[in-house]
Specification:
alpha+beta; 7-stranded mixed β-sheet; 20 helices; about 15% strand; flat
Length: about 500
């Protein structure tokens, strides 16, 4: 029996429902409903589950729990949770939505008094104290921390976010990705989810990865597989965070530094970072020379404001470039050349773009464009903002772009974020707490496929409005904004 049918059978019993009457009211063949309740088959669609929930007069929370169990059975547990982790990753990149640091660790934690070169550390609280001391010292002294640990150690990454506000502080991190085929997609995106808050922090965060069987590498038989290494102290600890050894002394630390560098040579960069012109040109060149991208039939773009980049020529950007920026000539050359060529290549691809009401309002009110170059630009004039949206609406009406409005509260995005997925490229642009943009190219295959899968099914999910409702929303926004602009004139 499935988890869905178990839950449904329990609810039918609680509500003392008559199955024959329920089938009639929900317009389901009564033999089919018996099969659904007994786990022989699943309902044909979510709408059937909702009809059953309405008949049983379920509360919204219980209805959602029943729907979740249906989705798990319909998609498969691995696929369902993988997509949930991708959604969580996107939402964790919203600074405003991050949970505050635990209150009991807001203050500086007490020091470990012993001065021996090797100290046994027992218990999670003592381990957290030692960890906090190492990170705090390096962050305050513009130092460097080296980490070997999985992305599930929430306390550690919260510490880094709290103490790592100094942009001269660096954290290198090596984590293990699962190489066992049947569960690697879900586990690996969970690891990316765990470190997501570090991607927006002020300090320099440099993640690496290697493949192994996680259970074998971090299981109970592995004594101290995790490490935090500072300039004066190092902590080796168990995967469950219950025990460890604190090392001091130059010979110990030198050995651990050498070991970390050896591990790093056998690992790969998880993300390609950077948001300067050279980095953008590198991505443009990669796209233009990548056969997968050149032959791609679809691109998926998730951004607070609806995507219109390929509809605007370089003249729009050149018009709003600030006059006093030091690299203006370099930017002008790029916008007239490589960026224009990359934009022209996009025209052969079917674009699926997902946006939010808040993103459109922000764009119309402030002329705010989510792009690494926007920090070099003045706000887009109102008439150009309206013209961009008119072009998008025309693309929808003529069926050249698939544009979908995300339902409110279904997914939360930072105002300075977008992600683009094509067969040849997966790029994520976000703005760090310092105000600087970061562009990340994700090259690891299971992460690439997990995010690409999430994007490709988004259009058919309950998270988006229909195409006609989306077009009608844009018409309404344009009409209202046009009237306001005319009144001001």
């Amino acid at each position: 029996m499935s988890i869905f049918s178990e839950e449904l059978k329990k609810l039918v019993k609680q509500k003392k429902a008559v199955v024959y009457d329920m089938a009639k009211k929900c317009q389901i063949d009564h033999s089919s409903l018996y099969q659904i309740i007994n786990g022989k088959r699943l309902p044909a669609s979510e709408s059937v589950v909702k009809q059953i929930g309405e008949y049983l007069k379920l509360s919204p929370d219980v209805q959602e729990q029943l729907l979740e169990k249906y989705r798990i059975m319909h998609m498969g547990e691995e696929t369902y949770f993988r997509r949930q982790y991708v959604k969580e990753f996107i939402e964790k990149l919203d600074i405003q939505e991050q949970d505050p640091f635990p209150v009991n660790y807001q203050a500086a934690l007490p020091d470990i008094e012993e001065e021996a070169d090797c100290i046994s550390v027992a218990g999670r609280e003592n381990l957290d104290r030692a960890m906090s001391k190492i990170i705090m010292n390096e962050a305050n002294e513009k130092g460097k921390i080296r980490i070997i640990c999985q992305g599930t150690y929430t306390f550690l990454f919260s510490l880094l976010c709290m103490y790592g506000e100094n942009k001269d502080f660096t954290a290198e991190h090596i984590l293990c990705l699962e190489n066992v085929q049947e569960n690697n997609d879900c586990y690996n995106i969970q690891m990316l989810c765990g470190v997501a808050p570090l991607l927006k922090a002020n300090f320099s965060y440099i993640p690496y990865y290697f493949y192994d069987s996680v259970q074998a590498h971090y299981g109970m038989m592995s004594l101290f597989p995790c490490m935090i290494l500072g300039s004066r102290e190092a902590l080796l600890f168990s995967a469950d965070g219950s025990r460890g050894l604190l090392f001091r002394g130059d010979s110990f630390l030198a050995l651990l530094r050498e070991t970390f560098e050896l591990c790093k040579k056998n690992a790969r960069p998880l993300l390609a970072n950077g948001a300067d012109v050279e980095r953008v040109k590198e991505i443009a060149d990669e796209g233009m020379n990548n056969p997968d991208f050149q032959e791609a039939s679809a691109a998926y773009i998730l951004c607070p404001c609806v995507y219109f980049g390929h509809l605007c020529d370089s003249g729009m950007w050149l018009k709003i470039l600030k006059k006093d920026i030091p690299n203006r000539k370099e930017l002008e050359t790029f916008l007239k050349g490589d960026n224009a060529k990359l934009s022209s290549m996009v025209h052969h691809i079917k674009i699926y773009s997902f946006f939010t009401r808040e993103g459109i309002r922000d764009f119309l009110e402030n002329g705010h464009i989510v792009d690494p170059f926007s920090i070099y630009c003045d706000p887009l004039p109102m008439e150009d903002r309206l013209q961009c949206l008119r072009k998008v609406l025309k693309e929808i009406e003529e069926d050249r772009m698939e544009i979908y409005l995300l339902k409110e509260h279904k997914i939360k995005m930072d105002r300075d974020f977008y992600i683009v997925a094509t067969p040849g490229l997966l790029n994520c642009v976000l703005r760090k707490k310092s105000g600087e943009y970061a562009m990340m190219t994700i090259r690891e295959s299971t992460l690439y496929h997990a995010i690409g899968d999430f994007m490709s099914v988004l259009k058919d999910s309950d998270m988006v409005e229909g195409k006609e409702e989306t077009a009608e929303y844009l018409r309404k926004v344009l009409d209202e904004r046009g009237k306001v602009s005319n009144e001001r004139v």
